[in-house]
Write a structure and sequence with these properties.
With about 325 residues, the protein is α/β, with parallel strands linked by helices. It is built from nine helices and 14 strands. Helix 5 runs parallel beside helix 6. The radius of gyration is 22 Å and the shape is globular.
Length: about 325
Amino acid sequence: MPKMLTEAEFIENMRRYKSLGVMARELKMDLRSLQKRRARVQDKLGIVFEVDTPQKRMKESTFVSAARVNLGIENGTVIVFSDAHFWPGIHTTAYKGLLWAITALAPKAVIANGDIFDGASISRFPRIGYDSTPSVIQELKACEIAMGEIEETAKKAYPNVKLVFPMGNHDARFEVRLASNAPQYEQVKGFSLKDHFPAWIPCWSCWPTDNVVVKHRYKGGIHATHNNTINSGVSMVTGHLHSLKVTPFSDYTGNRFGVDTGTLAEPNGPQFMNYLEDSPTNWRSGFVVLTFKDGQLLWPEIVHKFDETHVEFRGQLIEV
């Protein structure tokens, strides 16, 4: 049975570990008891301990090289996909459609708007029964293959293409797990997800123009796209919710849009099957095309998976 910590020992360990979860594991103590003890000590001494949480580690992640990437696009096309959750051995219809669209439209930028990496084996969710998920290295190889093919296709279509990678919450799993369990390896090459995609610019948000922002997530819920543009004051393109839709909004300043880029994965894919328990989802597989004319965003266009071999775009079925 672990000994009780004195107040001085508790404070010393809190400052050492910064995370009650790590402290409980290292000292083999009950987490709930440590939470109550922390509250009592803070109230008694009037101090606030610096804590280490997954959210804090994500914000301090070495993933991003710049919080914001500005593209300054006046005329041309930008393709945005998200939530690919790349899985070993699977290239979805939407993924094949993405390669087609890049070749056909020669975009000036391709934005991978978060969650290319799933992190199934390092998820915060417990394992369901005896299900088997790919290892980190298997997932990472799948991501490297897919992102490499997208990069190669984009550079053939438009040699000066910009490749941008706003971070998603699933992408953060890669570094959060390492930061929690192997902090001594910080800044060692390969321990940051961005190290594996050197051609892609990592960031929190990408701004094609001053009035359009692309980031992985902002507001949540069924009305997220509407609330995103209302609260940001600009057109906002997000992923995360997998819904694939365009929500227009007009006021005295003109038109702007809330856009959800859907998922490049299959909504019923193995990444989601177990924790969704075979429930229906309001998700759609596809991605988004943004076209700019004289610095203004035209009505955003959706490329949607139609069936196993076709995507639909501009009223046409394209075989991929």
